[in-house]
Sequence to fold (130 residues):
Amino acid sequence: MPDEFDEDLLETARRELAGGATAPREFQFACALSEIPPAGGRGKVIRYEDTEVALFHLTGEIFAISNICPHELSPLLAAGTVNCQARTVTCPLHGWTFGIDTGKRTDGPGATPAYDVRIESGEVWIRLRE
Ligand code: FES
Fold:
């Protein structure tokens, strides 16, 4: 677990969580499909200049949500426990659980941003919002 959090990333997450990020951007390259751990494994973190994204592999599909858990704005969701059947990830700090395909919390109110994903020729592309 990191000792310090990147304040720029946290500020972006706060803005997104407050509903301030709604306009879709262009798709941006994330990584090779082969770089994402197999289904049920941890997420792969992709860092853009002001956003941190967790990519998850769920039985043949790739999903992208913010890596920032809205509980304490901790950048840890990629390190959470994945449940492929329920399609959820559980934050390793205090156990909040989110739908990997929606970003919505499944055990209470709240959500983390979810992003569009496109796979092209073995490459993963993500569309962020601004
Ligand atoms: S920081 Fe994620 S549940 Fe507390």
Q: What stands out?
A: Residues 7-129 form a domain with the Rieske Iron-sulfur Protein fold (CATH 2.102.10.10). The pocket of FE2/S2 (inorganic) cluster is lined by residues 69, 71-72, 74, 91, 93-96 (CB under 6 Å).
